[in-house]
Every structure is written in structure tokens, then in C-alpha cells.
Amino acid sequence: AAMVQKYQSPVRVYKHPFELIMAAYERRFPTCPLIPMFVASDTVNEYKSEDEAIHVIERRCKLDIDAPRLLKKIAGVDYVYFVQKNSLNRRERTLHIEAYNETFSNRVIINEHCSYTVHPDNEDWTCFEQSASLDIKSFFGFESTVEKIAMKQYTSNIKKGKEIIEYYLKQLEEEGVTFVPRWTPPVACKSESSTSHPRRPVSPAINIPESATKEGLSNKEILNTSSSPSEPTAGTPDDKLDADYIKRYLGDLTPMQESCLIRLRQWLQETHKGKIPKDEHILRFLRARDFNIDKAREILCQSLTWRKQHQVDYILDTWNPPQVLQDYYAGGWHHHDKDGRPLYVLRLGQMDTKGLVRALGEEALLRYVLSINEEGLRRCEENTKVFGRPISSWTCLVDLEGLNMRHLWRPGVKALLRIIEVVEANYPETLGRLLILRAPRVFPVLWTLVSPFIDDNTRKKFLIYAGNDYQGPGGLLDYIDKEIIPDFLGGECMCEVPEGGLVPKSLYRTAEELENEDIKLWTETIYQSASVFKGAPHEVLIQIVDASSVITWDFDVCKGDIVFNIFHSKRAPQPPKKDSLGAHSITSPGGNNVQLIDKVWQLGRDYSMVESPLICKEGESVQGSHVTRWPGFYILQWKFHSMPACATTNLPRVDDVLASLQVSSHKCKVMYYTEVIGSEDFRGSMTSLESSHSGFSQLSAATTSSSQSHSSSMISR
User: For 330, which of 149, 186, 347, 452 could close a Cys bridge (C-beta 3.0–4.6 Å)?
Assistant: First the structure.
């Protein structure tokens, strides 16, 4: 069966009032020379309300689809008919358009919805949005051809939509029409006419300072500062992207690429409350998977979980690199290249990788590289503002002068490979270009070891120069301005990057010390991970002494679907026996799995459920809290969620079959954090609780919902 293709547009803003846009839009009918395939249209139905505020018109449109002759012959049609229903509401100033195909409606289902509405922040501007779905059930064996034709025609028409409105606006202007009055209710008696201007039933427009929008702040952040927290800021398209913003900050995307970005972003907003990555970062993951939305979603979710687990969002503010790194790590940021990308200089040949690994261990080194990447993301944003165009990657200049056999020390290479792997997985599409200079004779050996770990897309961006070739034609000057070529490469620019040099052996630490150090860095995360198996839930015990405490939780479902429960018991459960894992005891050290509820206990007699069960899907983030009513023992439980058989039919649904195949391993993974807040620290204000305890990214302040009821889990859907 073919996939249903979906399309969702960004918001397009016309800086003209709604009424004028309507006058332009109406000129497309009955035919429009700018859309050659739109041959004719007839009105089938029409309705006008008495006060003329509502006007609904249904048309049958005849299209001459640009398809191969042969296909038309097989299909037996020359034209395709669509039904388009336009509902204009002059009082609310909205036009809704619904369209669907009449021809082949049993084989192909096309639905389109468009809307013209008033811009929420400026009532003299108009917003346009469209979404569509295409589902090809069967087409004489030509399903994929038809899909390609349909998508091609559709995306070329999307681009035309704007030109058409602008063409007719210009035509109106040439005829002297630059203003169309708003609808006013018909006057019943004289006394009412004194209030000549009808009030629009809308929330007051909030004036957004020009500078704020320029700085790339979303409306949301601004609205949050200007309205009191009790007012919901609903109705503002703060969570939508507009076409101009995409062009300015994200680059030229095709309609389908825009659609993928918008849909993935929407999915994140529904499932990952409080920690949505920036748009340019979501886009990097889409690019890394050629805009396959499912593959991109998978790697992005893994990366979000990883960021949360290792508190990567706080690395720049909270982690101070050890002095050894500051002295001997020969790398640093140095201006920007000719394209405006941040430039990172690494004097790898001068760097004692063996000494650094021996003095610091792999983890500290990895963490340092992560902080460099985080800084890179920050610099890209900065340069995007400064240069007035989207810059989403950086350039790396690696100088290999001095590279020798010491660099091929196995543990050093192993550390390097692991760093490359982590960076590839979590910072895709961030390397714009890699210039490798002064490559010596041993370089090919190192390259053979390293290159298999590097993504093909990334490898295309490598330029390698042996000896002094970089000074010749096609060399460094093509990529970097003469003024900033570093002194050690024969340039005039003082480069602040440390010289490197050998790390003194006195700073080396024993394998044991390093291991303890590594473990400390790994376990710095406040999250614990647990495995959940079919028939073996994971349970956590919380003992409550003070009746009105608050139990809070924050967890991510990394793999599989689970059911989350919270129980209360007066009796203390038996501590779990060591062998309770049975067959699962061979799981990895990270897979802790504990059962506390005794098999003989009965629900309702020995223990009770205090919250209704919550089903959580793979990739979801859940935060919530429970105000305890009694002292005693509370048990948080994460349980395997098995798919119920489809109720309506005996045949399994395709989704169910696929889902059961995916979780055939019958193992789920959860990363969780729980905390109990005493009633004395907690004075009724539920909102303070919500974002205070969780390891969210900096974004949470703006997006965590504060309307959560005080004993509920907020599953972000």
C-alpha cells in the first residue's frame, strides 16, 4: 500500500488587508491565465446570509493535468475534476477553502485545506496557510508514477500561489483599487449608526517591537513577557513558521522540505514539552536523512535523550575544562571563513593526543569536544544575525604539521573514533568544510583508520593538501581571507590557539584514577535508566512520612511503549531478591530492573492505585507530580505496554503488525528522575514546581505549560 503523502505549508504573510486580498483572490475565477492547467470552473452551489457576512460558494473545477499522453489514455480521461468549496466570513474576516478530487475518487483521495485569516499582530495584514494529503489506493499499476506527477504538479502550484495573488494585487492597483472597505452590519435603525465602526471580536493586538522580531525571537517569547501569565496566549501563530522567517534564518527550502520541517516541529511540540531544539537544529537532522521525516525523527529523538542524559544544554555554563586542556589542547575559534561560517583551527600535529588521553581520560576529552560543538552552534546563530543570511555550519582547519607515529597510538585513535561517532550522531550537518593542511607521509595510515567512521555527506566536505600545496592556486586563499590566515601558516594574523606541546608525564594518571574520573563524568547525570520487559516492570519505592508531600517525576521513554502507574501501600514491600531478574540478569549494567510488588498482593487489598494509568509512546517525555494524601509507601511503576488486538475487526491492522514486529525484543527502556518535595518547601504554587526540578534545556522556561492540574502527569501530546 502506498504511503499517504502529507503537505503542510509555512504561514505566508501578505502585508495587505484581508478585503484587498479577497478582491485579488476572486479574480482567479472562472479561469486564470497564470494557471494554464486550470481550464474552467462552474458554480455548483451558492449561499449568502441575509446580512451578506457569510458567502459560501462551491465550484467544480476542470484541470488539464500535465501527464504523459499514455497515462491519460490508460486512465481514459483528458481532464480531472475537483470540487472546491469556499466559505467566506466577512465578519470574522476569514476564507476557508476545502478541495477534493471528483475524478478517480475511488482510486485516489486528494484533500486540500487553505485558509486566509487576519494576522494576529496586525489587522491590516493577511496570513495564508495550506495543507493537503494525497492517498493513492490504486492506479492501474502506475501508483508511483501518479504519485510523482501529483507531487510535482502540486509543489509547482504552491510556488505559483503567491505570484498569482501579487499579480492581481498589482492589476487592482493599476485600476486604482488600493482599498476595499470592511464589512459592516446592515443598519437597523438610526440610533445604532453612531457606532459606525464595528468592533472586531478579537483579542487586542500586542505590539511586537520591530527589534525583537529581527533578533529572531519568536512571538511566543515576546508574548510571554507582555501578557500576564494567567492569560493563555492561544490564537497566536507563535508555534508556526512563516515563509519569510524560513528564508531569512533557515535558507531556501523546497515546499516539501518546508513541510517536513513544519511537521517534525509540530510533532516535537506535541511530544516534547519544554525542550524543543531550535529550528535550524531540527533542520540539520532532516538534511542528514535527506528529509525522510521518520528517519530524521528517530535520530533526533535519540540525540535529545542523549542531551538530557548528559546535561549537554548546560555544558557551556557549568563545565570548566581542566587546566591541562586549556594548556595543551591546540585548538580554538578564529574569526570566520569567506562564507561567513565560524572557523575552528586545530593544530593536531602539535597536539600530544597520547599525553592528553593519559592525563585526562576519554570522557573529559569527549566533553571538551562537545563544548566546542555547542560553542559552534552558538556562533552559527550569531553569524546568521551578523551576516543577514542563514549560516548553519562551521569550517574546520586542521594543521597536521608535526604529525608522527605517536598520533597512531591505539587508545588515542580509539578515543578519536568515539568522539567522531558521538559528534556525527548529535551534531549532523554542522561541518561545512574541513581543510586538512600539511598532511605528512603517515597521514594515509591515520586516514584509513578514521574514514570508515565518517558519514559520506561529511567526507565530501574534506579538502586535503600535502606539504605547502595550500599556499598555491586552489589553496587556502579560496576559502579564507588573507587578513586572517594564521601566523603559523605564514599569514599575518596572530592566532590565539595554544601551541600544544608534550603533556608532562607528571600529569599522567593511573588507569584506575582515570576510570573513576570517567565514571564520575558519566554518572553526573541526575537520570537513571531502567529496562522494562514483558512480565517484568520496573518499580521504584518512595517512602512518605509527611502526608502532604509532593512526588514529582520526569522521564523519557527511549524505546518501546510503556504504561506508567503510581500505587500506595501501607505495608512495606519486601526488598527485591537478588535473583528476581531471572533470565534478564545478563542485561547490560545500565539496565536496572526491579520488582517490588509481591506476586501475592492484591490490588485494592494490599495496595491501591492513586493515579489513572498513563500510556506513554516511544520517544515521549513525561513530567508530572502527585500530592500525597497519606503517609506510607508509594510505588512508581513502568510497565510494558502490549498492543491490544484491534477491536473492530479480527484482521490485525497493518500498524499493529508493524508495531509488534518492532518491539519483538520485548524490552523497553526508560530514563527517569524522581524527587519528593516536602510540603514546607512547597507553598501551594504548583507552577513553581513544574520547571524547577527537571533537567530541561534552557527552552523550558518559555514552553513548559503552567496550567497542569496538581496531580496529573502532563504527557506532552
Answer: 347
Question: CA-to-CA distance for 628 and 631, rounded, in angstroms?
Answer: 7
* 365 exposure class (CB count in 10 Å sphere: 0-12, 13-18, 19+): buried
Instruction: Report DSSP state, residue 472.
Output: S
Cis before 390 (ω within 30): no
Among residues 169, 162, 164, 235, the alpha carbon closest in space to that of 202 is found at 235
Radius of gyration of the chain (CA): 31
Percent of the chain whose pLDDT exceeds 90: 39
Spatial separation of the C-alpha atoms in residues 376 and 281, rounded to whole Å: 12
3-class secondary structure for 614-674? EEECCCCEEEEEEECCCCEEEEEEEEECCCCCCCCCCCCCHHHHHHHHHHHHCEEEEEEEE
Query: In CATH, what is the architecture of 525-573+592-642+666-682?
Result: Sandwich (2.60)
Q: Contact at 8 Å (CB) between 306 and 669?
A: no
- Summarised one tens digit per residue, pLDDT across range 90-140 is 999 999 999 999 998 888 899 999 999 999 999 999 999 999 999 988 888
CATH number at 318-506: 3.40.525.10
- Whats the size of the chain, residue-wise? 717
Give pLDDT, residue 70. Answer: 80
Distance from C-alpha of 610 to C-alpha of 542, rounded to nearest angstrom: 14
- C-alpha 521/C-alpha 367 separation (Å) is 9
| Alpha carbon distance 118, 235 (integer Å) | 11
For cell 542523549, the residue is 306
Average model confidence (pLDDT) across the chain: 80
Domain locations in the chain as residue ranges: 5-175, 243-310, 318-506, 525-573+592-642+666-682
pLDDT at 458: 80
The domain defined by 5-175 folds into Alpha-D-Glucose-1,6-Bisphosphate; Chain A, domain 4 (3.30.530)
**Per-residue model confidence as pLDDT tens digits over 572-602:** 888 765 444 444 433 334 458 888 888 889 9
Phi-psi region of 347 (alpha: psi -120 to 50; beta: other; left: phi over 0): beta
pLDDT the model gives residue 577: 58
N-to-C CA span, the chain: 28
Q: Give the angle subtended at the CA of 506 by the CAs of 505 and 507, to the nearest 5°.
A: 85
Q: Do domains 318-506 and 525-573+592-642+666-682 have the same CATH topology?
A: no
Q: What mean pLDDT do residues 666-690 have?
A: 64
Q: What is the pLDDT of residues 168-218, one digit of tens each?
A: 999 999 999 999 999 998 887 544 444 444 444 444 444 434 433 333 444
In the CATH scheme, what is the code of domain 243-310? 1.10.8.20
